[in-house]
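anyone else get weird line breaks when pasting these?? whatever heres mine. first is seq + tokens for prot A
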Amino acid sequence: MALQISISDSIVQALRLPEQRIEQELRRELAIALYAQDILSFGKARELAEMDQYEFGRLLAQRKVERHYGLAELDDDLTYAHVISRNVFLSGLVSSETKDA
């Protein structure tokens, strides 16, 4: 299910943003607000904001929004760290095999 929100032209015109940044900024602001109120998880809020984990985490820190960090988030972070470390390890193997060839 997709949801579209209609915003009147007068409000859109009153926004002090370049037209090409309006949707992006509104997505980010909505994501921050919903995360801060514990309505969306970190993962879903960053998905709404169309940002990766690191970028969204930095944005929350800039806005002084505390992270809601529980066991689910710890599990997500450990999985992410495992995937990253595996990719780094595998890319190291590939580059060393390429050098040896």
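and prot B, same format (seq, then tokens)
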Amino acid sequence: MRLDCKHVWPYLSDYIDGSVTAEERAAIEQHLEHCEICSAILDSVHNILILSADDRVFHLPIGFGDRLHARIEEELKKAIVPEKNSNGVDDGSLDE
């Protein structure tokens, strides 16, 4: 059985849990040997599971939330805004 990325992703959770068949596990592992993207996704899912099981609480510095929201607003304002043509209609161009 040969799998593509789109076939591997739905199995990652079951792969981590060990609930795939031996044939599926072999096919997934063969794919992961050659696919950096799926390997990175597997590592990320695994890390998320570890972090979500961690019951420690991390306190953020005072004002962090306010600074984060301000920064997000600032970055959104910098985003490319579609230009309007002479009729005031978005012309779809991305030119600045």
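btw re prot B: Helices lie at 5-8, 12-17, 22-34, 36-53, 64-78. The first helix runs from residue 5 to 8.
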